[in-house]
Amino acid sequence: MDDPMDRVVRKQLVSHLRGGEAFMPVDHMVDKVPFDMTGIVPEGLPYSFYQLFYHLRLAQYDILEFIRNPNYESPAWPDEYWPENPVPQNKQEWQQLKDFYFTERDEFAAYLADQDHDLIKLIPHGSGQTLLREALLVLEHNAYHTGQLLILLRLLGLH
Predict the structure, then answer these.
(1) Residues 32-40: what's their mean pLDDT?
(2) Residue 42 preceded by cis peptide, ω within 30
(3) Residue 69 in 3-state DSSP?
(4) CA–CA separation, 130 vs 135, rounded Å?
């Protein structure tokens, strides 16, 4: 059933997922960081741009897989959500991380936009979660860490 209000809500969720509504989109941030600066850990911070972006990607992936795969098992928290090494092994790993993030973000957006996926129905394999709750969780988590990425850009002299 096509519900115009439901479509509006979904469109707004997707818009926020892509970023830029209230903050610089992640797309613009990752383009500003030269590979040789991805692993710099500024004084007083516990992570590099790479580590923070890795965490952002993995959390988004974890929630996406949870909602669409009843057999999915989340990584161990917190150890598997943050890479130990502050720098990617090489440019290929860095590019792959970016590709995964944006591909999975597009998959999440498509999932949210699909009216066949009820926003407020309980996820059958969950423990009380709904698609709307999971979408809001991703938005909140992404916004929190996007702000941190912007601070890193400033500390690295890139913004």
Answers:
(1) 97
(2) no
(3) coil
(4) 9
